[in-house]
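Example record

One chain of 354 residues, shown exactly as stored in the release files.
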Amino acid sequence: MMKKLLFLSVLLFCGSSLFASPNGLYDVLWWKWFKTYECRFTPDDSKIYVNGDSGVGIFDTKTGNQDTIISGVWYGTASYDGTKYYKVENGVIREYDFLTLKHIRDFEMNGNYVKEIFISPNKYITSLDSNRISYTLWDSETGQIKETYKLGNISVDGVNKTVGDVYFLEDKERILVSMGEWKKVSNPNNPIIILSRYIAIINSKTNEIIKELESLQSLYTSKLFLSKSGKYFVCENANSDGKTALKVYSIEGDLLFSVPGWSSSVSDIDFSSDDKFMLVSFEIGADKVEIWDLDKGILKKKLFDQTTTASCEFSSNLKYIACAIAGVNIYLFDIDGISSTETNKEIQATITYP
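Predicted structure tokens for this chain:
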């Protein structure tokens, strides 16, 4: 079955596109090979929304039929319940309805210019300022600021400290954050010297480091992931040596297990709604999709091998997985029964889009 799907994937890549562009089906295929598409289930799992080059395509989960394309829009960072998503546009946080993709409101910025946002399971949103030295806690229900904290600093001739990713944990007094310390030097070939890059759990009131966890590969990591219940978090391995791609921690900062592979090839991570499973997508350089059992720390299933995957997502009822493959195809996998330890059911791709 897998060989048949891979052969079909090659045919589709050579002759079709998920979304038709104004100039025909083939003019952006090579560019789309490097494009990261996202696919996401609606809260009731009846539809799959897919970000594409023309807008958002909406597919029926059961039939695979494309219902419509909402042109000229792209969804952003979704809330954990899947009902809304958020974007930063011109420094402003904007809230949208996920089903209609229509703008709901702008947050009350009060002079704040936002660089990036991070959404936590507890309905709080954190944002970074343009200098990455301060972060702001927002209440997503009211769209108002709860508090602003300064964690980093910019020095004229000394050591600078800047913030990468930042998530408020459930108790709201601890943050999970990636940090970088660096300084400028008078060297045109290498004007910035990186002193340290790490992930830590920090007391949000005192800025005291509770636990320093991991050195980072890059100054601003985009590969720090918090699970849907806030029970786990995952970060990239500092050394992209092909041996360890990801490290999985408990929310208290204890290392549980590692995922082998190249950290630079990880394109997406998703957690099941019950936080029992983790889905890892690898793109060019590794080309596979894996389901990991978080409780046992073992590989549960490999879905694809030697196939570039941009993003994958669990349905909330844990019956399906949708995967965007090579920026061209969407595969739907039937995983019903995966939670049972007795089941030996083989996971198959039941629907291929388009």
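Notes: Confidence is low (pLDDT under 50) at residues 1-36.
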